[in-house]
Amino acid sequence: MMEFVIQCNYTTGYDGVCYPMPKLDLDSTFEQKNDIAKAVEDELEKAMSLYGYEIVQTLIVDIEPDEHVKRAMNEINAAARMRAAANEKAEAEKILQIKRAEGEAESKYLAGVGIARQRQAIVDGLRDSVLAFSSNVPGTSSKDVMDMVLITQYFDTMKEIGASSKSSSVFIPHGPGAVKDIASQIREGLLQGEAASHH
């Protein structure tokens, strides 16, 4: 009798599981494990109560799909994770590019502010030099002072070019007459720029 009950229990349990399973896809089967266990419990309760047995609870410990199905599921999960990782990487790269562009814009703005202040300081320094030199050396004009300042700057530039070990070779005329020519060229450029700004 006990052997019959066990066989009946197994057959009824198997039928109870098989009854809801064909209606579900694989993902739903995993998600509804508790519902399937309840359906099996109900089926067993009906069948076994005839023999005086009470079914307290049924457990579905694991759902074991076919090996091919498992492999396919793993590939789907791996592909989904790869896609998510690619999206995250693209988003991180986008943020990095935006931050880099913002940093460059801020850097250029600050460089522009620095150059403007530097030029203002140069103009103030030149004005003070012209006024001080003209008042201390009688008979000198502002043109004479500017020529001297330009020549001084020319020599300072030549000194910096020569002192740097990593500078490229620069050929600049540097005879005594060339200094006068350079001063004239700079002065003419400034005058032309000033004339163009008034038109």
TrEMBL record:
Ranges for domain Band: 23-94
Q: Which domain of life is it from?
A: Eukaryota
Q: Which SUPFAM superfamilies match?
A: Band 7/SPFH domain
Record carries keyword Methyltransferase: no
Q: Which residues form a coiled coil?
A: 69-102
Which Gene3D superfamilies does the protein's record reference? Answer: Band 7 domain
Q: Which GO terms describe its cellular component?
A: mitochondrion
Keywords attached to this Swiss-Prot or TrEMBL record, sorted alphabetically, are: Coiled coil
Q: What is this protein called?
A: Hypersensitive-induced response protein
Which classification does the entry list for the species? Eukaryota, Viridiplantae, Streptophyta, Embryophyta, Tracheophyta
